[in-house]
Amino acid sequence: MPTMIFVNLPVRDIDAAKAFWGKLGYSFNPQFSDEKTGCLVISDTIFAMLMTEERFKDFATKEVADATKTTEVMLALSAESREQVDEVVGAALAAGGTEPRPAQDLGFMYGRAFEDLDGHVWEYVWMDPAAVQG
User: Fold this and answer.
1) Nearest C-alpha neighbor of 56 from the set 27, 70, 36
2) Which of 46, 67, 79, 106 has the smallest count of CB within 10 Å of its CB?
3) Residue 123 in contact with residue 76, Cβ under 8 Å?
């Protein structure tokens, strides 16, 4: 069985978070979702457990960071093309996200970032396959 990752993130409004990610084309696993939690399916092995702050505090032993004021993590996901990077970030911006910095274009690598409704930073990055194997 491949290693899976479950990133746990606090959100202020679970319904708004689910709607935001739905507008980006993502789905939620209903088996692990309820009125306080949404299991965002990113791939067969990558999931983000979006939890209301109240539910998140059931697991956290430290103060919960306000991602609109501090950076607690930057999540980077690979894209299949430069166009896909622009499509996903464009959809995030149309759904209410913000773009914290300009695109980074290094020729062999292209990336953009957005902040979701709760201020979590998500990066989408395309890398030229020839450069990766190089």
Assistant:
1) 36
2) 106
3) yes
Tokens linked to 46: 């990558």
Sign of CA pseudo-dihedral 91, 92, 93, 96: positive
Amino acid at 3: T
| Segment 87-93 mean pLDDT | 98
Q: Answer yes or no: is pLDDT of 134 > 70.
A: no
What DSSP designation does 95 have? T
- In which order are the strands placed within the sheet that holds 109-115? 74-78, 121-127, 109-115, 104-105
DSSP calls for 24-72: TT-EE-GGG--SSEEEEE-SSSEEEEEEEHHHHTTT-SSPPP-TTTS--
- Could you tell me the pTM of the whole model? 0.91
Dihedral sign for Cα 121, 122, 128, 133, please.
Answer: positive
